[in-house]
User: Which sequence fits this backbone?
């Protein structure tokens, strides 16, 4: 099957709800500050530099954002990391990502977004939905919090009170809205992934919904160990053929990982998906 025909199949699966978009940092690669040309920090390296006032950290800390965040958390406290992310994504204005304009047109019923910005929530601001965000290191049996959005405001609710007919936004790494919460440092990830593996970071209604689904990785590179562990556990109970990973010029490590977890690697990127979608043409 050619890449073009595979992308058409992917679009059909997203449209009918059989496949779930899984958004990574590169979907935000074209975003920049509204009042200038400063790129939005989203990937590991750019986040580390932004968090450390533009200065590179030691090579072993530059390897991955959670490691660098843990180093600064130990020096300055967890609140320093939370303030940094809240100001970055909640206090500054950024241009829109083209993929989010496409999502605004297509409105998938379930989207996973490992970024910590608010663009996906903004995209659904005119649509009642359920927001699930990861939490960590608290005296609670679960590692998620759930908010119902009625088209105007968010209200925290219990998982038994969720309207399962509404679209679902799942942001495992958190966001500034409606109140800031993040999975950021190594300590956050250790706690979150442990409970994710144990089934305590996924609400019961989502465990039912996700059975047999496929996933479409968009803007994801698969070189970072922590992101790979989160992905592997979120894909639990997926369809036998788990879906697709759109990664331009993937390296051998990424291809092996795709084979290992049952994702079909496609040598294409977000732009290729958008170019193939009539809905995106209508939005342009």
Assistant:
């Amino acid at each position: 099957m050619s890449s073009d025909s595979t992308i058409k199949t992917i679009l059909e699966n997203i449209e009918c709800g059989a496949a779930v978009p899984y958004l990574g940092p590169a979907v935000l690669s074209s975003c920049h500050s509204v009042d200038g040309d400063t790129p939005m920090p989203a990937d590991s390296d750019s986040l580390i530099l932004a968090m450390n006032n533009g200065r590179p950290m030691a090579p072993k800390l530059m390897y991955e954002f959670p490691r660098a965040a843990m180093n600064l958390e130990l020096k300055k406290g967890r609140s320093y990391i939370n303030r940094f992310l809240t100001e970055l994504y909640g206090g500054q204005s950024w241009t829109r990502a083209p993929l989010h304009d496409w999502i605004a047109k297509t409105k998938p019923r379930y989207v996973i977004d490992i970024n910590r910005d608010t663009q996906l929530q903004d995209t659904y601001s005119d649509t009642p939905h359920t927001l699930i965000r990861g939490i960590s290191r608290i005296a609670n049996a679960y590692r998620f919090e759930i908010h119902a959005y009625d088209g105007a405001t968010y209200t925290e609710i219990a998982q038994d009170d969720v309207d399962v007919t509404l679209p679902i936004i799942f942001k495992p790494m958190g966001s500034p809205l409606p109140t800031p919460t993040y999975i950021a440092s190594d300590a956050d990830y250790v706690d979150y992934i442990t409970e994710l593996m144990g089934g305590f970071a996924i609400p019961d209604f989502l465990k039912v919904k996700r059975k047999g689904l496929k996933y479409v990785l968009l803007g994801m590179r698969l070189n970072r160990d922590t992101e790979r562990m989160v992905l592997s556990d979120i894909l639990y109970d997926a369809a036998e053929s788990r879906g697709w990973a759109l990664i331009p010029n993937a390296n051998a490590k990424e291809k092996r990982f795709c084979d290992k977890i049952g994702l079909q690697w496609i040598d294409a990127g977000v732009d290729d998906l958008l170019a193939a979608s009539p809905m995106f043409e209508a939005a342009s």
Remarks:
- Residues 129 and 141 are 24 Å apart (CA to CA).
- The first helix runs from residue 3 to 16.
